[in-house]
Write a structure and sequence with these properties.
It comes from Fodinicola feengrottensis. By secondary structure, the chain is an alpha/beta fold. The chain is built from 7 helices and 7 strands, in the order βαβαβαβαβαβααβ. It has a single domain, classed as 3-Layer(aba) Sandwich (Rossmann fold), CATH 3.40.50.720. It is 44% helix and 15% strand. Helix 1 links the parallel strand 1 and strand 2. It starts with a strand and ends in a 7-residue tail after the last strand. The model has no long low-confidence stretch (mean pLDDT 93).
Length: 248
């Protein structure tokens, strides 16, 4: 991994921050992308640098092609092309049952999810194609396979992202670029952990063979594997990081 450049979208906190720290610890130069949380992003960078790693924080709305192009150009001028894309940024979504949901809420989430994945993947392809090597990892969710009450917007949008990943993997394989998806189950210590109340959390833990919910670091380990040389013959796959809650 040493010397590779990794862009981690939405990496000012939670899974993204844990992934940025781990990739940096393994020798990658990391781009910590954020939308609003500037102070938190710079804190992640400072932590990486204090540990001897290399990182920069770059603001960009990953749904905006011009903003993403500017980000990629900033990275190119600093370190060269992006070798690894970890698309983790989470766009807002409604938490409510289908009967109460508007098309703007469901369709808007689908549009945001796919637009962001489309834009960031397109932006990193030229450098990856030129060097005939690249890693693309999308962060999905177990909700795309296992429905949970009120989570139809997120689950549907992430299911679309997972299928998008498979199609892109099929197309980009001959260019030496792998595309894989990491689908966590419930993850503690993130900004959206509040979606589960204490009773729901206890039920989820009871349904998990390893006896606890995932932590951001657990998810980061799976992402780091896909970002490495070790995963070179794996593409179009989905890794379930859920402690055995859902086996498929």
């Amino acid at each position: 991994m040493t010397g590779r450049v990794a862009l981690v979208t939405g990496s000012s906190s939670g899974i993204g921050a844990a992934t940025a720290r781990l990739l940096a610890a393994r020798g990658m130069r990391v781009v910590v992308n954020y939308l609003h949380s500037e102070a938190a992003a710079h804190e992640v960078v400072a932590g990486i640098e204090a540990a001897g790693g290399q990182a920069i924080a770059v603001q960009a709305d990953v749904r905006d092609p011009a903003a993403v192009d500017a980000l990629v150009e900033r990275v190119r001028q600093t370190w060269g092309g992006i070798d690894v894309l970890v698309h983790n940024a989470l766009t807002p979504y409604a938490i409510k049952p289908f009967r109460d949901m508007t098309w703007e809420e469901l369709g808007g989430k689908l549009d945001d999810e796919m637009r962001a994945a489309f834009v960031v993947t397109k932006a990193v392809l030229p450098a990856m194609t030129e060097q005939h090597w690249g890693r693309v990892i999308f962060l999905g969710t177990g909700l795309s396979r296992r429905p949970r009450a009120d989570m139809i917007a997120l689950g549907t949008a992430k299911a679309a992202l997972t299928q998008f990943g498979r199609y892109v993997a099929q197309e980009l394989g001959p260019q030496g670029i792998t595309v894989n998806v990491v689908e966590p189950g419930p993850v503690a210590e993130t900004r959206i952990s509040h979606v589960l109340d204490d009773q729901q959390t206890r039920r989820q833990v009871a349904a998990t063979p390893v006896g606890r919910l995932a932590l951001p670091a657990d998810v980061a380990q799976a992402v780091a594997f896909y970002a490495s040389e070790d995963s070179g013959f794996m593409t179009g796959t989905t890794a379930a990081v859920n402690g055995g809650m859902d086996m498929f």
